[in-house]
Amino acid sequence: QVQLVESGGGTVPAGGSLRLSCAASGRIFSWYSMGWCRQAPGKELECVAGMRADGSRTYYTDSVKGRFTISRDNAKNTVYLQMNSLKPEDTAVYSCAASRSIATMPQAYDYWGQGTQVTVSS
Predict the structure, then answer these.
(1) pLDDT band at 28 (very low <50, low <70, confident <90, very high)
(2) Terminus-to-terminus CA distance in the chain, angstroms?
C-alpha cells in the first residue's frame, strides 16, 4: 500500500502560480512512477503530468506543457507540481497518484491521494 497526501492548493488570480506537494508513505516511494491528475466540475478526470520512478522520463498533457513542471524528491518521499501562468480552465481538484510504470491515463494508477482544490480566478 502507498498512502498519498496532497497539499498546496488554493485560490490564485489568472497568471499566478502554485506549487502542489504530495507526500507518500508506505511502500518504497522510489519504486513508483508518480502523476498528477485533475477533475474539473462536469469534466472527466484527466492526468496532466507524470514522472517515472527514476525521474528519467516525464509526461505532460498538451494543455499544460510549458506551464506545469512535475518533480520528485525521493529522499523526502515527495512529488511536486509547479504550476505557472495559471488559467481559469486549470480550476479543478488535483490528485496525485502512484503506479509501477509511468502512466497517462487515470485507470493506470494504483494509488490515489484525496485531492486538493485549485481555483484560478479570472
Answers:
(1) confident
(2) 39
- H and E: helices and strands count for the chain: 0, 11
Mean pLDDT (whole number) for 74-94: 97
12 grid coordinates: 490564485
Rounded Cα–Cα distance for residues 14 and 94 (Å): 17
Percent of the chain at pLDDT exceeding 70 = 100
Give the phi and the psi of residue 52 in degrees, each rounded to 5.
-65, 160
Q: For strand 2-7 and strand 111-112, is the pairing parallel, antiparallel, or unpaired? A: unpaired
Taking the C-alpha atoms of residue 87 and residue 16, their distance in angstroms, rounded to an integer, is 8
Q: In 3D, which of 21, 22, 15 has the Cα closest to residue 84? A: 15
Q: Which of 40, 38, 43, 74 is nearest to 56 (CA)?
A: 74
Task: Identify the pLDDT of residue 87.
Answer: 98
Task: Report the alpha-carbon distance of residue 70 to residue 97 in Å, rounded.
Answer: 12
What is the distance between the alpha carbons of residues 122 and 35, in angstroms, rounded to a whole number? 27
